[in-house]
Amino acid sequence: MAKDYYGILGISREATDDEIKRAYRKLARQYHPDVNPDPEAHEKFKDINAAYEVLSDDQKRQIVDLGGDPLAPGGGGGAGPGGPGGAGPFVGFQDIMDAFFGTAAGGAGGGRGPRPRTRPGADAILRLELDLVETAFGVEAPITVDTAVLCTQCTGAGTAPGTHLATCETCGGRGEVQSVQRTFLGQVVSSRPCQACQGHGTVIPQPCPTCAGDGRIRTRRSLTVKIPAGVEDGMRIRLAQQGEVGPGGGTAGDLYVEIHERPHDVYSRKGDDLHCRVTLPMTAAALGTRLTIKTLDSEENIEVKPGTQPSSTLRVRGKGVPHLRGQGRGELFVHLDVKTPTKLTADQERMLRDFAKTRGEDVAELSKQGGFFSRMRDAFNGH
Predict the structure, then answer these.
(1) Residues 97, 95: Cα–Cα separation, whole Å
(2) Looking at residue 192, what is its pLDDT?
């Protein structure tokens, strides 16, 4: 008796190609051996796969509609699912291209072979915030990483203890199935990854209960990263093979630690040079003074010469950030702001006026006729 392929997929005889594909995908997610280890589910999945192979081919579907079974011996359908007479899914222009560039026309193709379960892992990135002193002189910083690591129970195999991978019955371990199609170019054979094993050629009858067949689990790890002296904001430190372990226990990717430098209370950084601002009283700028500057790693005495003007800059050599590559350090630049008093007592004002007179700087004359501003006006007017 012919199988009810429509009933297996739960569709009507008037179902379109898209409805057939949707029904197959829905049932495959439910009964695929990788997600449902029940032996009865495995048998049901084989029927589901066979029904899809038949109903997705117009010639075989016509045999079913006439009451026959194209997969039965003598049923007029040739070989079973995946064989030269079976029809594969997603038939179209790509099948014709595969016939010329992937498999041979009119016969058995060369094939691409099964897809390996073990694949390299992805890289990971971690943000690490450091102080200016830490980026300047280096530090060994502890970090915590959440990544995929090798499953300790199955060591990457993905199978439950005491079990092993099984050869896929649909593709016979090849990882792909072939289909024959008649096109305007003639009869061609095309290959597609086996949907039963996802192209691996093997299935996992009993997945590992710890990793669910993936061969890896996510966990939190503690590491120590050595930050070299002189790193800058935005730089990345590479830790080889400390990233994600790949599916099936594949080689781990790399871990990149991205440096983010916190703002400093006193210093701003431009490359390997440091900058800071110091406010001086007007009298100290006029008479000269000595400043004690606390650098990142020492104290420096800086001489301010008499008559220093506002916005002057003093340079302290070799007190910046160590060079990342090479010897030496950057410079420290001290920018001076001269502060003028805003409120004066009567005695202070009198002393300043007396000081101005001794220098020939009569302040009152600046606003009188013929004074400083008057002379400026005359100069611009050509007088």
Answers:
(1) 5
(2) 86
